[in-house]
TrEMBL record:
PANTHER family: NITRITE REDUCTASE (NADH) LARGE SUBUNIT. GO terms for biological process: nitrate assimilation. Keywords: 2Fe-2S, Heme, Iron, Iron-sulfur, Metal-binding, Nitrate assimilation, Oxidoreductase. The gene is nirD. It comes from the Bacteria. PROSITE patterns: RIESKE (PS51296). Residues 21-122 form the Rieske domain. It comes from Maribacter litoralis. One of its GO terms (molecular function) is 2 iron, 2 sulfur cluster binding. Gene3D superfamilies: Rieske [2Fe-2S] iron-sulphur domain. Signal peptide: none annotated. This is Nitrite reductase (NAD(P)H) small subunit.
Length: 126
């Protein structure tokens, strides 16, 4: 019997970062796509949005069916806002605010990203 997955992710604002986690070299992330990294017990989806020249990070857990899938989602824009569509049932989430853009699911947690010397860092508050 497996334990239920809980959504324990919490967004981190830029001014709340206490740890910049060195995730991986830029080359490990597909252009206009995502990859999953692990920080402590959390799976984090990191997106290299080259069309925008921006990076985003959010929880990998989709709050719809509690599946670890968001890093494999398609990214795009809606009303000038970057979003990710879950690959399973296409619920979409803002990559800036985490808000569910096409429904009333819980927001996903988002995290700051910075690039230094060709490495991707994700910001965490603990
Ligand atoms: S599991 Fe993500 S939309 Fe259903």
């Amino acid at each position: 019997m497996s334990l239920p997955v809980l959504n324990t992710y919490e967004s981190v604002a830029a001014n709340e970062v206490k740890v910049w986690f060195k995730a991986a070299p830029i080359s490990k992330f597909p252009k206009n796509g995502g990859a999953c990294i692990k920080y402590k017990d959390k799976q984090i989806a990191v997106f290299n949005f080259t069309r925008e020249g921006t990076w985003y990070a959010c929880q990998n857990l989709c709050p719809h069916k509690m599946e670890m899938v968001l890093s494999r989602g398609m990214i795009g824009e809606e009303n000038m806002e970057a979003k990710v569509a879950c690959p399973l049932h296409k619920n979409t989430f803002s990559l800036k605010t985490g808000e569910n853009l096409n429904g009333s699911l819980d927001a996903i947690a988002t995290y700051p990203v910075k690039i230094e010397s060709d490495f991707v860092y994700v910001g965490f508050s603990e």
